[in-house]
Amino acid sequence: MNRRDVLKTGVAASVAGMANVPVIAAEGNHFYELRIYEMRNDIQPARIQEFFQNQVLPMMKRQNVGPVGCFNVISGLRSPSLVVLIDYKSLAEMQSAREAMRGDKEFVKAWQAFDAANEMPYARYESTLLKAFDSHPKIEIPPTDEKRPPRVFELRTYESRSAFSLRNKIEMFNQEEIKIFRDCGFAPVFFGEAIIGARLPHLTYLVGFDNMAAREKAWDAFRANPDWARVRNKPGWTDPEAVSNIHAAFLRPTSYSQIR
Question: Has residue 9 been placed in a domain?
Fold first, then answer.
């Protein structure tokens, strides 16, 4: 067995003398596609909701892609808009999913019928590709059940003046801030560095709350948290050094969203 074969089989298996033991590669940081469909009330916005519910999500489920979150805008973004969050295990999975989508006859037929209508139910859409943070490597779905009301989700984007200041802010999240969020009652869903998209460099994250009152309580606890008071003044991590602008939007999950 040459060196390449040993690496493929796994050093541990070779040492133990076990042949044909499969090696499971460690799962790395996931990638997210964040889409925002700008709808108009005068061109049947319900049609795109129906398309995602009845065609897009079932197609992605057939491909074992996801979870997929679909949200309506409460405030902070153009309204009405449909916000779609798609979790991919890797860029390779994202590419294979796009290829499989075009080969899915059932979906393509529905897609063609959707596009053939006289007028699209949205004006434009934009898409951002994000890479998950090291300390939060994939989407985390808050626990839920059919009886509990849908959560309120806060989508926040932090712009930085340079790639280096953005890296400092990401380090702050990885080392300290995400843990403080959890301690203060936030439900973290994802944290991602924008790789492709508008207004670079920036990071975006999504956190959930039971309702707006719970959101205010959590942020009050965060601001009063002694760990936050300690880390916010660390050189390189202060807001003037690491963050240029902050944008916040509030979202409500659709009835068919896999993140609620």
Answer: no
